[in-house]
Design a protein that fits this description.
2 domains; 84 residues; elongated; mainly alpha; single chain; 2 helices
């Protein structure tokens, strides 16, 4: 027996999962490339910087990283809501 709307819902979930894989994969790839470019700035042969500047860079990166992780964890915790 087929349920009306089941295939459409299943297709929508599959589309969302595929969309996530595609978009998140591309964004992670871009982040990693930009991190490698930032790592190039550590070359003291080409750049001069202070410890304070380095600390400021990592402070802001760490803060944003915590925000991203928090948003994913919030979503995970939402899925665990209690219901009867």
């Amino acid at each position: 027996m087929k349920f009306k709307g089941f295939n459409e819902e299943s297709k929508e979930i599959k589309d969302k999962k595929e969309s996530f894989r595609r978009v998140a994969g591309r964004r992670v790839h871009n982040i990693l490339n930009h991190m490698r470019l930032l790592r190039n700035c550590a070359n003291t042969g080409n750049y001069s910087y202070t410890e304070e500047q380095v600390n400021k860079i990592f402070r802001v990166i760490d803060e944003e990283w915590r925000n991203v992780k928090s948003d994913f964890k919030k979503r995970k915790n939402k899925d665990k809501e209690f219901s009867l």
